[in-house]
Fold:
Amino acid sequence: MTRKVKEAVKYALSAGYRHIDCATAYSNEQEIGDAFQETIGPDKAVRREEMFVTSKLWNTKHHPEDVEPALKNISNGFVIFFYNRRGDILFPKNPDGTMRYDFIDYKETWKAMEKLVAKGLVKAIGLSNFNSRQIDDILSVASVKPAVLQVECHPYLAQNELIAHCHQQGLVVTAYSPLGSPDRMWKQPDEPVLLEESGIKKLADKYGKSPAQILLRWQVQRKVVVIPKSVTPARIQQNLQLFDFSLTDEEMNFIGSLNKNWRYIVPMVTVDGKMVPRDAGHPLYPFNEPY
Structure:
């Protein structure tokens, strides 16, 4: 898989992509860095100033003194992610299988991230998986305004209120899992499959596009950034071919009406023989509130 990631990034850059999304837990930053070394530079096909590279301050690195060391070589953007126990284990657990949590105030973490901007170590900082109240909490203390909120978003989880709130506050919204993440490990056999939604398929037939292209065009047309995942060259190319057609207002509204408030990205753990949401026990868990 590591070789696939490197080659996929190189292909994406050659196809015209200029935003690469990373995270420590993806275990692919080395391969992405290798792809950059071979592709980006003053004498290469892509110039560094064209690129925007995003990574996440991982769950276990939210103490202010851990923020800058965790940055390492991330180049442009840095967003706060979840919140687990401090240390070097990505997903620390208690003996019963539940997550071991830390309770550092994310506003303290934000202040430490602002120092990265002041030092010129990153160009922008932002948030991931924050609800609207938590966003406003950060804005109340921020001297550097969050540039972006990265959050799960697709027609089954339209996030209309959250997107409106972010746009009102001047934050860009980036949609992760815009196609429903059908390849994730905890996929359930009875869950709705976004790419098989009949209305989306009909629109794909109408425009001579794939269902994925319809889903991505819907997001782009409502001013939401998308970060679809693929290592397949044909799909990488296809996911970029969104700008030779437009959906009508009626079609945009129809896709938005598919909302089920359905989250695909709710990692599960086994506790006492039962599958439970991995992070829902934390008092700052963002998804217990409406948006």
